Amino acid sequence: MTREPGGTPIGEAIRSILLDHGNYAMLPETEALLHTAARSQHVGEVIRPALENGVVVLCDRFVDSTLAYQGAGRGLAMKSLGQIQELATGGLRPELTILLDLPVEVGLARRFGGEDEINRFDRAEKAFHERVRRAFLELAQNDPSRWAVVDASRTRDEVGSDILALVANRTSLLANRDLKLFSPAPSE
């Protein structure tokens, strides 16, 4: 289990820059490049070596988060973002992506009412969060064989149960197909 941004010492240092309240003036391009730099380190240091050793990798966020947050949310060009993600990951793509979906108001209320520290992204305007949610839902709709959308407005136990069932089903299918939860992109 790992997370982005983060997952490595370098990634965690970048994470602190990205989430810091004092960095509200950060340009969208800088934000995208920092996320991508952390991802590159993460793939090279953690994800790819684990996969090469036959380990199933469960990662909180990956390339699609950059497309949703920096692409749809911040208005950067999807094509350019896709190109730098390809460079950062060497074409690595998840076999399963789970989207925990809920209305923006509910998600923000949970963030601001929870015990976790509020970060720079949490304080973005509601319209930003709406764009990000729409982008995630569109990504899921465009690739239903990879994505599973879970209604996160339910209880933690219900959501957790759905996630465990999805992962168990997919890993069972993957075991039968001799695949991992991440696989290299097809050669072009």
Brief characterization of the structure:
This protein has 188 residues and is mostly helical. The chain is built from 7 helices and 6 strands; from the N terminus they run βααβααββααβαβ.
CATH architectural arrangement: 3-Layer(aba) Sandwich
User: Which word captures the global form?
Assistant: globular
DSSP, total strands: 6
Give the DSSP E fraction (strand runs of 2 or more residues).
5-15%
Biggest sheet details: 2 strands, parallel
* Total domain modules: 1
Number of helical regions: 7
CATH class designation = Alpha Beta
Residue stretches low in confidence (pLDDT < 50, at least 5 long) are: 177-188
Q: Residue share in helices? A: 55-70%
Biggest sheet strand order reads 1-2
CATH homologous superfamily placement:
P-loop containing nucleotide triphosphate hydrolases
Mean pLDDT: 91
Determine Rg (CA atoms, Å): 16 Å
Description:
- The protein has 188 residues and is mainly alpha-helical.
- It has a single domain (2-183), classed as 3-Layer(aba) Sandwich (Rossmann fold).
- Helix content is 57%, strand content 10%.
- It has seven helices and six strands, in the order E-H-H-E-H-H-E-E-H-H-E-H-E.
- The strands form three sheets. A two-stranded parallel sheet has the order 1-2.
- The longest helix has 25 residues, at 28-52.
- The radius of gyration is 16 Å and the shape is globular.
- The model is unreliable at 177-188 (pLDDT under 50).
